[in-house]
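Dear Dr. V.,

Thank you for agreeing to look over these. As mentioned in my earlier message, I'm a first-year student in the group and I'm still getting used to reading structure tokens, so any feedback on how I've presented them would be very welcome. I ran two proteins. I've put each sequence directly above its structure. The first is here:
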Amino acid sequence: MAVSRRQLLRYGVAGSLAAAVGASAASSARFAAPRRPGGDLFSLGVASGEPTPDGFVLWTKLAPDPLAPDGYGGMPVAPVTVDYEVAEDERFAKIVARGEAVATRALGHSVHPEIAGLAPDRWYHYRFRVGSAISPVGRTRTAPASDSPTARMRFAFASCQSWSSGYYTAYEHLGAEDLDLVVHLGDYIYETSWLLARRGASMPPQLAGEAVDLTGYRLRYAQAKSEAPLQASHAAFPWLVTLDDHEVDNNWAGEHPGLGFDIHRLPPLFRRRKAAAFQAMYEHQPMRRAQLPIGPSLHLHRRYRFGDLAEFTMIDTRQYRSALACGDGTAVTGCAERFAPDRTILGAAQRDWLVDGLATSPARWQVLGNQVAMAQSDYDPGPALLVGTDAWDGYVADRNAVLGAAADRAAGNLVVITGDRHENYVADLRRDYSDPGSAVVATEFTGTSITTGGDGGDLTDTGRVLLAANPDMKFYNRQRGYVRVELDHRWWRSDFRVVPYVTRPGAPITDRASFVVEDGIAGANQA
């Protein structure tokens, strides 16, 4: 049953900014719950993420009317006290942590409590409560202790989920997997709507056009997170998330807006637009206080360790990059600018942090959570080199620095996982693509989209061109889905899980191809 706005006003009073982002709300006043059960305050579900050996961050957002045109989800102005519980069992008979957080209007009535002090390498269950309204139960886990022997782990990675392009069927299958973690590599939302006919549904008027302010971005997250398969996948596993371009503006680069021109792409207004986009992202994702944006700045590069087996290094290839070389990022030939030594996709500080971490981590597998293709992607099978400049091909100096350092500093088994392309690739990575004899130092697995691009196909004409022009590319597919990964101390296996269609619901899933990387041997082979 619905909770009235008058009843919600009774649930809490203002707390500090720390409480607003999920810290203890012990100082908040407590009010009696309404006599009648609460409505669907938790319409956007629950989530967890950023697992450490002793905890994780939890998330929910109160939104009884998630697509309310003002972007506030049907919530009143007043803050609301939210209780949370963490238990060893799904019946909550063995509760190990509980607390309160204050959901405020300033952060869209979202909460991000950070849980610590738990046992490592354990599954837990969690839930939220506001008065009589109880959230769905989520399941999450702590990571193994950083120095502990860890025999095996499984995770999946996904990206690019345009709501208007199709159904989130892939998440129905991902949510049923046996996983320890999900990694999302960007384009969780799209700032504008594409190809509405693929869903056969009209877009609500408040979602028409392009998101340029906080209300617009909030509504696009609410639309995506209202999808039951996505909610179920968030509730089943902890997630690590980052962004690419469509969380803000297509092909944006650092201080430079993306394609097209309107008033919101003028520098001062673009900074304001980025700040709005970053806040909306934080409000809707299981991210820690360290990721709370400060205006048009959001700290996204960070590391998470899973015992002695794997370290996940999440990088940010948008905020610190130089402007796109030789145009708008489309494929070009003869672009000398992309080789300029001062061009960067990471920024100097992040590049140094990345290189140092690769050299010092004792984990068996170094997993680089990356947004845009790192491998050279030549779109001309002839003698010309035709490459796009929105990916690492436009930032050759940084690519050479990272891959060269990985080779020189014996960084272990480096595997790059990538989104963006709406295609499945497997490509070995060379230290220096200007030298055909340069050593292979890593493998890149690029995952397709959840929906973007519609149904897609298996091997398209573009795929045939790429395979012919790039000898290091070992696989191409353009269907929709995700990549499931299993790794132990001997090998890494990537399974490309695809659905035959997304323009109607109910698609089955199959393993299109599987590739393995052996410990100590750079390069992938088909399983």
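The second protein is here, in the same arrangement:
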Amino acid sequence: MDKNMDWQREQSRINFIKELVEEKKQQVITDTASMKEDIFQLRKGFWDDVTVNIDEPDEAVETYASIKQQAELLSERERSFGQFHKLVDMYDRQQNSPYFGRIDFVEDKDKESVYIGIGSLMDKDREDFLIYDWRAPISSMYYDYSPGPVRYETPEGEVEGEMELKRQFIIRGGELKGMFDTGITIGDELLQQALGGNASAHMRGIVATIQKEQNKIIRYGRNQMLIVQGVAGSGKTSAAMQRIAYLLYRDRKSITADQILLFSPNHMFMSYVSSVLPELGEENMRQTTFKEYAAARIDQEFMIETPFEQLEYLLDPLIDDWYEERVNAIQLKSTLSFKYRMDDYLEELRQAGMYFKNITFKGKKIITASELRKYFYRLNGSMPNRIESVKQWILQKLEDVEKEERTKDWPVEEAALLSKEDYLNTFKELESRQKFNEETFDDFDREQELLVQLVVERSLRPLRKKVKKLKFIHMRKLYYQFYQSLKSESASLDGVASCTQAALRKKYLYAEDLTPFLYLKDQIEGRRANTDIRHIFIDEAQDYSPFQMEYIQQLFPNARFNLLGDYNQAIHTLYSEVPSVLEETQMTGNAERILLMRSYRSTKPIVEFTKPIIPGGDQIEAFNRDGEKPRLHEVGMDMIEQLVTTINHRQTEGYETIAVLTRTKKAAVNLHGQLSKFVDGKLIYKESQTFEKGILVLPAYLAKGIEFDAVIIPDGSDVTYNREEERKLFYTACTRAMHELDIFYQNEKTRFLKQVPAHLYREI
């Protein structure tokens, strides 16, 4: 009877909340409608309300102030309109599911029922909170404590008290579907419901199921660097997204989403997480891959290898004669000792060895590389300061060149051949500079002089632009020379150096050269630090080298760093002994590490099956969610037929995302071609592709960080996965599965599966 009364009281409160939210939403819609009309009128009459007069300095200042005032008014209205739009979205979510948790908190004999949801809600008088945002300090007790003594941090200090009740709700469509009191962090019942369904098209942002250890990550605020080592499926990325939402909420007066940057492994992952922050009521942070961020700063003269092209190369050891040298190069160029070698080379360049390009105009050398070098070494000071002086010297020389070119015949000829449109544009450009008025332009000599002047200036404009961007430095030759110096340093480095130089001659930059090349460029030109970014998140951080990580820290000197990864999934350093930044001892000074050893993604049978594949797997704890044991299929010539049968079976079971994970891109392309005759699957083979529902055929490395309802590994044979270095790649493929895992093999299963006890899988 008491339980039934409790249920009715909670449903009655939900009904009251729904009515209040509807009332607030309608008020917002009314306010928004009038504001929309105000914005339209402001835009329409923008210049009507601005007095423009630039004839006199004082009037020009007044005009600027008038325009600025009008623009700020319009901007403020548009900003408010955007906030109202977000508020309506929040109210819609609150009407569907206003909250998911309740704690009864007693402080100094005062008792308060604290309801926790996706966003806060106040009563009509705006005095009391009816719902607390999950990111509010008081809400942390819900995630961190069981009933009993509790405490939480506020900006004013620590608050202590007693939790008398901890209750969880499942509310859908404004109706109470489930309610239970619990003494643990999050009841298994809620997690079972959240994890038991199919994988959505985008990663969930379920704040109701945040665990205590994840909550520590979300609200972390001590050291400059947070390192999260989490096993596959432990909720690292989910916690990172919710941490971003928490930071935007906590520091909303001092930071914006544009000041948070996430380095993602690829575009598929980026599209996978793109809806999470909007779902939590926040704007998306900036998101890119390291390769894209870095490549934007390299001249287009280079073709740049992607990390996935590098991995494809490494997966095929018979591809060319440089294979062993490439493996050694990847290892060498990842280390901090390689950075120190480069520092020594930079010190040598201060005295001798700089390379510059000839400055040419209309096919003629106007400043030779030799002249630039001589001028550079006459200067003192740091490398960037000397480069700046050289730049100014060149620009000054170009002023003299411009004056000389005006006396020649070619600009007169070009001026005479101007089209009517060019002529009018020239007139407007000169007029804007107040070089003449309509009367003076009628004078033929004056007109000719100004046109010649403009033609020469326009012709020199691209050259000036290149000089300002420091294109006169021969960076490729300087980088090439660095490897020449390595050859003279040690015979053991000859292969690495020759391999790299061969690529540079073809204007090709290996993936492992991206960081060293940019480091050299920055040290010579001057580091272009980004001081606006306040928080950096690096997902799949196990694939970042120590050199790469130190370079990123230099790029963002004002940022706090959040590294998330799993060294058991370090697939980009498969064939070299590069230490993961998750384990690098040099990074522990101002960093804190958090371990996540419990896996939630996969069913318990799948987690138990994958644990023996990797060293230390026995420490992984599986969440107690039932499911089928993984199936091992021994097949022969009928492999395609068996694959199609399995895919159709998974679709019949209602699974929406079925991934067929191959070892390489080549294998994915071939297999998709064979399967396409029988099933409607999509081939994912480029890092720029986005995540979609359905049947997906893709290399395992492109699936990093993503989960699927069912995973099929089409070739788990020992002939395919036969090198110890590929153990982590195979493990990564297996751990993408949420509910079903099928592995096919011919003749002999991979050695990694021979370590798995037979009782943990079914042999088909």
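From my reading of the second output: The two ends are 52 Å apart (CA to CA). DSSP finds 25 helices and 26 strands in the chain. Does that match how you would interpret it?

Kind regards,
E.
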